[in-house]
Every structure is written in C-alpha cells, then in structure tokens.
Amino acid sequence: MLRLALSLVSSLQTGARIKQSVEQSIRRAVIVVAGIVVLLFAIGFGLATGYHALLVYDFSPLAAAGLIAGVLALIGVVLLFIGLHKSRPRQPDFVNAPAEGLAMVDQSVNKAMNQVGPLTLLAVAFAAGLLASRRR
Fold this sequence. Notes:
The protein is mostly helical. It is 85% helix and 0% strand. It contains four helices and no strands. Helix 1 (2-56) runs antiparallel to helix 2 (61-84) and helix 3 (97-116) crosses helix 4. It is elongated, with a radius of gyration of 29 Å.
C-alpha cells in the first residue's frame, strides 16, 4: 500500500517536472528565436549600410556588392572551419574523481531527502545499518 502511494506521488512529481521543463524549453526557444530575428535584421541593416558607404567612397555598385560578398564568404568559411573542427575527447581527471563521486552522492542524498523527507531517510538508513551489522 505504501509502495503504491509512493509510486503515485512519484509519478505526479515526474509529470510536474516534465511540464515545468517543457515550459522552460518553450520560453528559452521563444527568446532564442526573437534574438535570431533581431540579429538578422541587424545584419541586413549593416549590409545595406556597408553597401551605401562603399558607394559614397566612389566604389561602383558592382565593386561594392562584390566586396561585401567576399567578406561574407570569408566569414562563412571561417565559421565553417570552426564548426567542423573536432575537439579532442576529454581525458578523465583522476585527481578530481573522488570529489566528483562524493558530490554525486551528496546530490543523490539531497534529492532523496527532498522526495522522502529527512526522518524517513534516517529511519531507512538506521534499518539498513542494523540489518548490515546482523549479517556478519
């Protein structure tokens, strides 16, 4: 009976966490899309301004357009190389491994304490210790 009640509460908490993470993802996506739209307008405005600035400095329209296209192609090639660059796989850090393991245990204990409660967790730990000491 207790197991059924705990599983029901756990499934309700899981559903709430999923709903919260979906809402956060949607908010984040909307903000990113708005930022991309603003950046595209800024790029378009900057290109038009650069084109007209080149025309003011006695470039022909064809030369001004070619110069802007060349700079954009150069930027695109640099971004392509950056995107295709493979990073080396990170070597495991054996010096920090014990600290990371303890941090994971601490995080798990905190999560269990938040879900079940400190008194229940203390009772379970006491019972587990008692059973472990009796088996010897």
